[in-house]
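Late entry, evening session. Most of the bench is empty. Finally got around to the prediction I had been postponing all week. Sequence below, unchanged from the version circulated by S.P.
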Amino acid sequence: MIEENLPNLSFQTFFVSREQSGSPLVPEMIRIGKNFKEQGLLKENTGIMSLGYGKRMIIPGIAFKLDELKREDFLEIVDYDPVKKIVLAIGRNEPCIETPVHWLIHHARNNINAIIQLNGENVIKKLSTVLPTTEKECPPGTLDLAKEILKLLRTNKNIIIKDAGALFVGTDIREVEKSVLKALGESI
């Protein structure tokens, strides 16, 4: 599923500022995107990654390829209200459709500070026999999807999102990067 073709009907965005994020975590996220391309993980896959940054979250904006990310592509998500479906952001781009789900995961679990999500049929095929899969197929970016994911994350760090892709979580981005590479048969 290509994010560019999905209309954002799941939340409304208000920008606190249109300045680019000054987070010191951005260069590491850019490096990981390039590393995944070098390892051959992005041939048929799209992806999204996010990092906790204090009470905020750093995430790329809509429709950016992981291997082509630049500093100006990133947003700082200041807050998300799941009841009103409002995202408060700092950055130049619109948030991706998965922003609410990543926000809810980061804020529901104190031990999760980094998330990498790779979407694509080949990821699902390769990992479906070794990773648990969410029970229901839910629309991207919804509270229902976040609940399905959080159920599995109680006892797992790596899961399959039914008919979407794989989600890897951890305390820091390097740990999650290693989990992705190990699960997909690559080495660091």
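Two things to note before I forget:
The chain has one domain: 3-183.
Strands lie at 12-17, 46-53, 56-60, 74-81, 86-90, 114-119, 158-161, 165-170.
Will write this up properly tomorrow.
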